[in-house]
């Protein structure tokens, strides 16, 4: 059965007919619930015939396949287990989530089993592919509002269920929202999702502890602290993850996804992923910025007040002010929301098949010169952080970075994509000039990563913290390097004002760094108490003294800069 | 009429009692009228959900410790847990998940700073047998597995499970074809063998023979990649734990064990090689190597040294390099004994 041969739902405008359909689908889900016994798909690879590759990431490939005995199309995500952590806790959790969640808007697994070194996750085949792939192929300027409403509402249904189950998705984006030929929308990819019932923090403490019981309250109770997700969609509190985050982080990503559907890409996607993180930290991304941008852009996309209001509420800096998924469903924007046939008629018709789109995007990928990570200096590290995992059917994620379509400033928004790519390359070269500072960065990063590995042996939870710190160090440093680069490449200091702000930003970044180094030191000192193996401790001590020198150096630098700043003020 | 009842909220204890009555009804299964049965079932689902909300809170409110304590006390006053476990297969998926989460939470609820769940389980250990063999039922495995993992947080329960006649079934459960179930069983197995140090040490000493015979043949020499990898990692964790030092000394004195580890060291998977090295180094570092261990190492000296020399890991790791250098020195210095 080929997807294109499936008969499409006829678009209907008759309201009573529409109601009937809604009722019918409601009945269908009721019946699904009733039969708790799931159809068992075969657990051996020989029962499946692979037809085509439809997605790939660092450690996983997604295939379109046919399950021969069932005669049904499936998608198989094949994960390389040799790259997974030895306890397999992450894959185990993903597999468990996939088999226990049961909701009409969630893509779960038929079954999963190992095939030598790989884990095969067999899922229903969603012939329309991801919304990200649809948008990048056919709707570069975004979807229309009625279609956005349908997609978002279905996604919210999934989110509301997920949160009620104590799960955070942690990677909401158009690339993880899939559509079937009949317009069914499903949320996919639970590769980085977390359950509050099964989180290391909540289960690793001692038996007698009474405080370890998790709870579902959205106000404060669970506090996840590891960085997970994809930078452009990540909530500020996830980036600042030491303060902890909860369900509301998904709501932020949901808001960003709304903008992604509306504009064809997430805000700030013209920047490399690390930059978008800094901007959120320092400048605080605001919805109004986007409004401004749109006005400057001729305002081709006119969105209703309800839409803007809905998105703005999701993008509140304060997580507690963002609405819950359940509450969002009652937002006026979702009143009069059309049925899934709206997607069939306006979005899916005439769309090339998933595999064809994937092949096209792959060709584009291969011919883009800056694709090669190797000459991107420390960007490679960030790339790795970001791509530690692959998103379900995330066909064209790289395209977002390689072809930044969101213009950097209104002044150069006439530039073509190629120009943009060149600008980016130049920027990297300017970073290369400052070999010295980079070397220094690498050295200290090395120290941190060594710390990181020794921390792993002691406590897995801390690994996440260390990893996060490492990542934010990378982010901060790259920002600093770039800032210095900007100033020196610019050459002439024609504006005292600019210099001052630059230096101020720099100072801020150094201060933040100081704080982080202190945090790491605290962590290590905390660790020492539990340390039993003596030589490990010795090793740690060495690292601490190394970091102390590091810190001292930073302090000196910061002092120097402050002096410089003073000088400028005096002038 | 309904509104009148609503105005007076039930206490947590009352909800537990009501749940228990409904479970008894489900268990007896005497109701013949389908509609009546369905009504009771949905009533039961609502009650279980309410219990969960008291224990975990909801999006608006956090759990109240007083209410949790009351609920816990009432729950364990009678045989409610047995009923829940027994009736779980008759519930729908959502209720099964809710019930599992309720049971999990109750294991950690203190009543007057005592974990009464542990006291209850001590008198009802047979329930653990039900949970363990639950891995054989595809539909129930993940629910029973999650409950079991929470119950073995109590040392006394872990001890019972380790010494239960079902313990050796884990060697098969770990390799079940359904990955989600196999991985869950592996997580429980690992928890059993690492969590309560003194209990684990005692268990391993008393059951050394059969346990490691099974461990070697079924896990370390399994044809299944993931089984081998998990097993060699867990073996390293167990042997490197100080409380198991007696077991470690015994393990590294066996020629058969050395053979198996040397084979794992030659695997094509880098991850398995690394984990195998962490066990292999113990054989080499042992200062009282038996003669047959020495002779194997001597006979394979050049091969081992070459293998270790080429053995590089992607991440820079000083500890690993130091260990490797030491192992190579030890082996290079070995001379055949007269």
TrEMBL record, chain A:
Q: What is this protein called?
A: Protein kinase domain-containing protein
Membrane-spanning ranges: none
Q: Which UniProt keywords apply?
A: ATP-binding, Coiled coil, Nucleotide-binding
| List of residues binding ATP | 77
- Pfam families (UniProt xref): Pkinase
Q: Which PROSITE patterns match?
A: PROTEIN_KINASE_ATP (PS00107), PROTEIN_KINASE_DOM (PS50011)
Q: Which organism is it from?
A: Crotalaria pallida (Smooth rattlebox)
Which SUPFAM superfamilies does its entry note? Protein kinase-like (PK-like)
Q: Which Gene3D superfamilies does this UniProt record tie to the protein?
A: Phosphorylase Kinase, domain 1, Transferase(Phosphotransferase) domain 1
Record domain Protein kinase: where: 48-334
Top-rank taxon of the source lineage equals Eukaryota
Q: Would you identify the family this protein belongs to, as annotated?
A: Belongs to the protein kinase superfamily. STE Ser/Thr protein kinase family. STE20 subfamily.
Q: Which residues form a coiled coil?
A: 537-571
UniProtKB/TrEMBL annotation, chain B:
Q: Which InterPro entries match?
A: ARM-like, ARM-type_fold, Mo25
Question: This chain belongs to which protein, by name?
Answer: MO25-like protein At5g47540
Q: Which family does it belong to?
A: Belongs to the Mo25 family.
- Which SUPFAM superfamilies does its entry note? ARM repeat
Gene3D superfamilies, per the entry:
Leucine-rich Repeat Variant
One GO biological process term is:
intracellular signal transduction
The domain of life is Eukaryota
> Which Gene Ontology MF annotations are present?
protein serine/threonine kinase activator activity
């Amino acid at each position: 059965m080929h997807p294109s041969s499936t008969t499409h739902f006829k678009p209907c405008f008759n309201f009573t007919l529409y109601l009937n359909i809604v009722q019918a689908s409601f009945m269908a889900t009721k019946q699904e619930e009733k039969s708790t016994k799931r159809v068992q798909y075969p657990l051996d690879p020989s029962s499946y015939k692979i037809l085509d590759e439809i997605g790939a990431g660092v450690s996983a490939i997604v295939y379109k396949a046919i399950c021969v005995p069932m005669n049904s199309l499936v998608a198989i995500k094949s994960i390389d287990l040799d790259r997974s952590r030895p306890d397999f806790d992450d894959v185990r959790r993903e597999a468990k989530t996939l088999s226990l969640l049961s909701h009409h808007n969630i893509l779960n697994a038929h079954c999963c089993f190992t095939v030598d070194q790989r884990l095969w996750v067999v899922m229903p085949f969603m012939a329309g592919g991801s919304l990200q792939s649809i948008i990048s192929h056919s709707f570069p300027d975004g979807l229309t509002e009625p279609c956005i409403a349908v997609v978002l509402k279905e996604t919210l249904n999934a989110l509301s269920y997920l949160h009620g189950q104590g799960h955070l998705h942690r990677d909401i984006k158009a690339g993880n929202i899939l559509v079937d030929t009949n317009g069914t929308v499903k949320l996919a990819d639970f590769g980085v999702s977390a359950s509050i019932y099964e989180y290391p923090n909540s289960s690793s403490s001692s038996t007698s502890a009474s405080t370890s019981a998790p709870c579902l309250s959205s106000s404060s109770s669970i506090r996840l602290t590891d960085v997970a997700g994809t930078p452009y969609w990540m909530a500020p509190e996830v980036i600042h993850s030491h303060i902890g985050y909860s369900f509301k982080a998904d709501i932020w990503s949901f808001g960003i996804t709304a903008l992604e559907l509306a504009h064809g890409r997430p805000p700030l996607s013209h920047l490399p992923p690390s930059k978008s993180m800094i901007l959120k930290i320092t400048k605080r991304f605001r919805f109004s910025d986007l409004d401004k941008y749109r006005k400057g852009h001729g305002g081709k996309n006119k969105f209703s007040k309800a839409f803007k209001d809905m998105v703005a509420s999701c993008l509140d800096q304060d997580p507690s002010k963002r609405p819950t998924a359940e509450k969002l469903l009652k937002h006026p924007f979702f009143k009069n929301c059309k049925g899934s046939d709206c997607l069939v008629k306006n979005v899916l018709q005439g769309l090339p098949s998933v595999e064809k789109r994937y092949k096209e995007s792959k060709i584009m990928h291969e011919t883009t010169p800056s694709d090669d990570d190797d000459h991107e200096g420390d960007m490679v590290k960030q790339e790795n952080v970001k791509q530690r995992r692959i998103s379900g059917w995330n066909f064209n994620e790289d395209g977002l970075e390689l072809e930044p379509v969101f213009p950097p400033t209104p002044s150069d928004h006439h530039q073509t994509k190629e120009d943009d790519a060149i600008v980016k390359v130049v920027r990297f070269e300017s970073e290369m000039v400052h070999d010295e500072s980079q070397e220094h960065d690498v050295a200290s990063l090395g120290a941190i990563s060594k710390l990181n590995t020794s921390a792993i042996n002691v406590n897995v939870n801390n690994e996440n913290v260390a990893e996060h710190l490492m990542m934010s160090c990378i982010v901060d440093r790259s920002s600093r390097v770039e800032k210095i680069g900007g100033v020196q490449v610019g050459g002439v200091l024609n504006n005292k004002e600019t210099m001052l702000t630059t230096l101020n930003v720099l100072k801020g970044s150094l201060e933040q760094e100081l704080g982080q180094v202190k945090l790491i030191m605290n962590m290590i000192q905390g660790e020492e108490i539990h340390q039993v193996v003596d030589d490990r401790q010795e090793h740690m001590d060495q690292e601490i003294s190394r970091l102390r020198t590091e810190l001292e150096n930073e302090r000196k630098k910061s002092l120097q800069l402050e002096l410089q700043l003073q000088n400028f003020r005096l002038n | 009429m309904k509104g009148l009842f609503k105005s007076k909220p039930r206490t947590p204890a009352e909800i537990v009692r009501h749940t228990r009555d409904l479970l008894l009804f489900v268990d007896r299964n005497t109701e013949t009228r389908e509609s009546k049965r369905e009504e009771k079932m949905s009533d039961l689902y609502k009650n279980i959900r309410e219990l969960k909300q008291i224990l975990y809170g909801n999006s608006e409110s956090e759990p109240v410790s007083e209410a949790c304590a009351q609920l816990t006390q009432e729950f364990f006053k009678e045989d409610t847990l047995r009923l829940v476990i027994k009736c779980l297969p008759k519930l729908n998926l959502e209720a099964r998940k809710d019930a599992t989460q309720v049971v999990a939470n109750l294991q950690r609820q203190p009543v007057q700073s005592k974990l009464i769940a542990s006291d209850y389980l001590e008198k009802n250990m047979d329930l653990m047998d039900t949970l363990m063999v639950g891995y054989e039922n595809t539909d129930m495995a993940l629910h029973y597995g999650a409950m079991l993992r929470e119950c073995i947080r109590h040392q006394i329960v872990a001890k019972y499970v380790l010494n239960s006649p079902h313990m050796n079934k884990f060697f098969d459960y770990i390799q079940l074809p359904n990955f989600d179930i196999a991985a869950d069983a592996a997580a429980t197995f690992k928890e059993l063998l690492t969590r309560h140090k003194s209990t684990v040490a005692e268990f391993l000493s008393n059951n050394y023979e059969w346990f490691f015979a099974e461990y070697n043949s079924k896990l370390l020499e399994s044809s299944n990649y993931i089984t081998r990898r998990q097993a060699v990692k867990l073996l390293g964790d167990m042997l490197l734990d100080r409380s198991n030092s007696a077991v470690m000394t015994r393990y590294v004195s066996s020629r058969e064990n050395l053979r198996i580890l040397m084979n794992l060291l030659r695997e094509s998977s880098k991850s398995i090689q690394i984990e195998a090295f962490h066990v292999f180094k113990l054989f080499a570092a042992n200062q009282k190597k038996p003669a047959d261990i020495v002779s194997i190492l001597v006979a394979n000296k050049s091969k081992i040294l070459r293998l270790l020399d080429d053995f590089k890991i992607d991440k820079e790791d000083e500890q690993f390099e130091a260990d490797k250098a030491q192992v190579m020195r030890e082996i290079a210095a070995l001379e055949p004994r007269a």
